[in-house]
Amino acid sequence: MVTGAASGIGKEVALQLAAKGWRVAITDINAEGLNATVKEIRTSPGEVIDATPVDISDHEAVDTWARALEERFGAAHTIHHVGGISMWGAVDLFPLEKWQKLIDVNLMGTVHVIRAFTPSMMKAGPVDKDTKRAIGPRRLACVSSSAGIIGLPWHAAYSASKAGVLGMLEVLRFDLAPYGITVHAVAPGAVDSQLVHSIDIHGIDQSQKRVRLAKEAFQRHAISPAKCAEIILRDVDKGKYLIATSADIKVGRWAQVNAPFAYKAVLTGINKAFQWAAKDAWIESP
């Protein structure tokens, strides 16, 4: 099962799983984009067994979809929860409703998916009940973010929603192990996805030259959604718990723990770079 499958990383995860012959159930709030993914998958060895638009922030909608899938196909073997949103902003300007939206979609959306799908996976275990054959460990992979680890500028609300996901998965990796379920926390670095092109940076005019230059620099550094999905699927197959999709996140995490002065110096520099980019772009005064 793949969430966020209408675009970006989620779409690429679904396409690459189908290319490997998996039967996939996919969802996204974007029905049009979801249908486009279905059309692409139809040319693959795999099969789309279900494509239902679902708002993951609505627990009743997630529960209903999960029950319908379980009744038709049994417990899921692998969950790739990718769906989420991104909004940034200075803490003194960022409105409460955007804080709430990030928590509702990114954190509570993950809670809804886990609550709806993992109970049947726990009961089923790693053995097929019909054939009695081992099918290997079931898998729960959820996309958090490098912002759940690293203190990036203007990411306070976004980081709160994604760090919560990491904390939850850190517990579940041990809680679910006795049931034959491996847990994987994905912390992507820079990915040149549709989310980047449409990102909401509250209070900033993104048409300003410095902001455009900063976004272009980010995109040059970023990997493609296809490459990101490839790394995720490879590392999930290897049984890796924390999956960082770029070397800078691995180095940043290491420095955070082992070289805090270096980490602080680099993040201070990044913060100054953000302030430089936004110098003439504020719609509201911070």
TrEMBL record:
This is NAD(P)-dependent dehydrogenase (Short-subunit alcohol dehydrogenase family). InterPro entries: NAD(P)-bd_dom_sf (IPR036291), Sc_DH/Rdtase_CS (IPR020904), SDR_fam (IPR002347). SUPFAM superfamilies: NAD(P)-binding Rossmann-fold domains. Pfam families: adh_short. NCBIfam families: PRK07832.1. GO terms for molecular function: oxidoreductase activity. It comes from Corynebacterium aquatimens. Keywords: Oxidoreductase. One of its GO terms (cellular component) is membrane. Belongs to the short-chain dehydrogenases/reductases (SDR) family.
